[in-house]
Each structure stands twice: as C-alpha cells, then as structure tokens.
C-alpha cells in the first residue's frame, strides 16, 4: 500500500517490534509514524481473573490517534519501549495481516466461537483505517466462522462497513457500541483532541440504528466537575436518545498507572484549579471514592429513567455492555438517595 507523499523512516528500527515490515510517515498524518508489522496472532485471550465480560479481544492496531487524555490503554505502549503519553498518540503499530491471521485462527476446529471484543485497547475505526482497510476482513472472518463479536468505537468510519456488519448480524450476535461521554465540542477538543466531534458520533449512532442494529453508548469516563452535572448528563442522554441509542453505560474516570500521570499533567495544564480536587477524590488509587461512585450511579439511573432507556435483556448487541454496567444488578434507587446532598468536596466557582 502506498500513501500520498509517504516516506520510509527508521523510527521503528530500535523498537522491539516483532514482524516489522517498515515504518512510514505521511503528510496526511503530520507527526505520526505508522509501524507496519506482520502479526503472528490476531486473537488475544483476556487474562483469567479479569472482570471483562468477554474472553477474547482483537486490536488491529496499537496506540491510538484519538489521543484521549484519560485513555487507560496507554500503559500497553510501554511494552514496546514507547511511552504511554505522546508515543501512544503518534507511534501507531498496524497489524497489516490481521485479517488473514484471524481467518486461520477461527477456522481451527479447536476455536469455540466465544465472544470477541474489538476496540478495547485502540480504536479500530480511527482515521487511518480508511487507508488500511483492516476491519472488513476481520468482520468477514468472524462472520464466516460464526463468531459473535462487538465493536466499540468513536469513529464514524464504521459507517463504511455497515452493510457488512448488518449482514453479519443476520448470522451471529453483533454489538455496536459508540463511545461518547459528553456533547460539548469545545470540551471534546480539550479532552480527546484526536476524536471525531460529538455530532459526528451522534450521526454514527443514528446511522447504526437506521441500519437496523441496536447501537449502545459507552459514556465513559464521566469526568468529575467537568461532565457530571445534571445539565451535562441531561443533554448527553437526551442527544443519545434522539439519535437512536438503545442503552447508555456510564461510569466515572479511572486513573490507572500510565493513564494517571498523563491525565493529571493534562489536568494541570487545562484545569489547574481542579488538581487538588482530583487528588482528594482519587487519593493515591486509581478509582474515585465509593461515595462518589454511588452518587454518580444514582444520577445515571435517574437519567436513564428520565430519557426512557429500558434494559432489554435479550438484546444480543447490548449484552456485553450491560454486563459491564455497574448498575446492571440491584434495586432501583430510592428517591431519597437521588435527593441527597452532593458528597464531593465543595466546588469552587470555576464553572
Ligand atoms: S479512542 Fe479509546 S483507545 Fe483510542 S485513545 Fe480514546 S480511549 Fe484510548
């Protein structure tokens, strides 16, 4: 494959990249280096003991052009001797033979056709997929082998493959999740500067629904003091509903090692007044306090109720999303719990 104005670079030569074919840059993606590799396996087994609701994942790429400041996958870049910050955003490993390798793996008699999740460590429909076109082959291989799968993305490019995905859904369980945690385009530019706009993602939700699929939405992470207000959530849930989303999974920011350092540096640049608040909320750990999680969980349940999101247990497309939902079990919230005082540290007049 040739890109316009592409140039070979030796940027990958010193990296521990098995199967490296070449490293290239192109003016179309300024500042980005693509490391094209031949992979030996396409399916990754989720480690035992994980609370993920699927056993297998496929990542067609490593690193992600979407540059989300909060991305929890950043740490995985360190295994390549790259850093979890700027390198994760700009040093993209592309498994150019992923579809062929996958087709061979799922054709084995030992393959048990367990659910496969795409979009867990990198976005399969980031802009570069327009040139590499890896996903059609992946979808075809999964469909041909009758393997159920789900795709989570922020990329409107998925629309290109909707005919294939719709055909797949006639043969296997298919879940399409769109990642959208706020609708404010200015905030999006600050928090996740490489992503398509919220409007583009709402249009994607609509296109998925129009194709007869049941799009769910991953509204994660909700950012304390930035996107957790009633106004933000009300607008988000309303917009998703109007676009045809069938379910919303929402949860607070996690700051695991790798993501934590990068996100806190970003926060210090963009919203310095929030740094002490986040430190108080997260302490030294990766998660917000239990009190905050419960507070947000109640608010999310109320938003679902107000906007008419009803859980559909038999809906194949939403299955894995529903099972990761922290609210998926338990009683509806008591009105008193929704009305109680905000347990967070007091907010200054920043917003
Ligand atoms: S789209 Fe997903 S994988 Fe890509 S940077 Fe954002 S959170 Fe990470």
TrEMBL record:
Domain Radical SAM core: 50-299
Pfam annotation, one family: Radical_SAM
InterPro entries per the UniProt record, alphabetical: Elp3/MiaA/NifB-like_rSAM, MJ0683-like, rSAM, rSAM_sf
GO MF term list: iron-sulfur cluster binding; lyase activity; metal ion binding
Biased segments, Low complexity type: 327-351
Keywords of the record: Iron, Iron-sulfur, Lyase, Metal-binding
SMART domains registered for this protein in UniProt: Elp3
Domain of life the protein comes from: Bacteria
Region Disordered, residue ranges: 322-351
PANTHER family: SLR0285 PROTEIN
Protein name as it appears in the record: DNA repair photolyase
Source organism per UniProt: Ruania alba
């Amino acid at each position: 494959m040739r890109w316009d104005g592409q140039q070979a670079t030796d940027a990958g030569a010193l990296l521990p990249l098995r199967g490296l074919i070449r490293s290239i840059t192109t003016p179309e993606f300024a500042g980005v280096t693509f490391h094209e590799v031949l992979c030996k396996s396409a399916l990754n087994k989720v480690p035992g003991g994980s609370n993920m609701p699927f056993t297998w994942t496929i990542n067609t790429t490593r690193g992600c052009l979407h540059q989300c400041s909060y991305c929890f996958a950043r740490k995985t870049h360190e295994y390549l001797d790259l850093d979890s910050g700027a390198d994760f955003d700009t040093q993209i490993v592309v498994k150019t033979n992923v579809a062929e390798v996958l087709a061979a793996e799922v054709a084995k008699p030992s393959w048990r056709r367990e659910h496969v999740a795409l979009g867990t460590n990198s976005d399969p429909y980031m802009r570069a997929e327009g040139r590499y076109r890896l996903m059609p082959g992946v979808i075809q291989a999964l469909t041909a082998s009758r393997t159920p799968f789900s795709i989570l993305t922020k990329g409107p490019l998925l629309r290109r493959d909707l005919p294939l995905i719709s055909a797949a859904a006639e043969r296997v369980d298919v879940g399409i999740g769109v990642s959208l945690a706020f609708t404010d385009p200015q905030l999006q530019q600050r928090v996740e500067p490489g992503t398509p706009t919220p409007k583009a993602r709402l249009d994607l939700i609509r296109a998925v629904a129009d194709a007869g699929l049941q799009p769910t939405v991953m509204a994660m992470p909700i950012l304390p003091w930035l996107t957790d207000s009633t106004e933000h959530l009300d607008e988000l849930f309303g917009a998703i509903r109007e676009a045809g989303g069938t379910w919303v999974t929402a949860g607070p920011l996690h700051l695991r090692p790798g993501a934590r350092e990068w996100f806190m540096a970003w926060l210090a640049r963009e919203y310095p007044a929030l740094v002490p608040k986040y430190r108080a909320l997260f302490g030294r750990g990766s998660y917000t306090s239990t009190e905050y999680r419960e507070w947000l969980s109640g608010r999310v349940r109320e938003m679902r109720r107000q906007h008419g999101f009803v859980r559909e247990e038999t809906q194949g497309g939403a299955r894995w999303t529903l099972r990761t939902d922290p609210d998926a079990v338990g009683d509806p919230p008591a009105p008193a719990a929704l009305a109680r005082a905000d347990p967070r540290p007091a907010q200054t007049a920043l917003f």
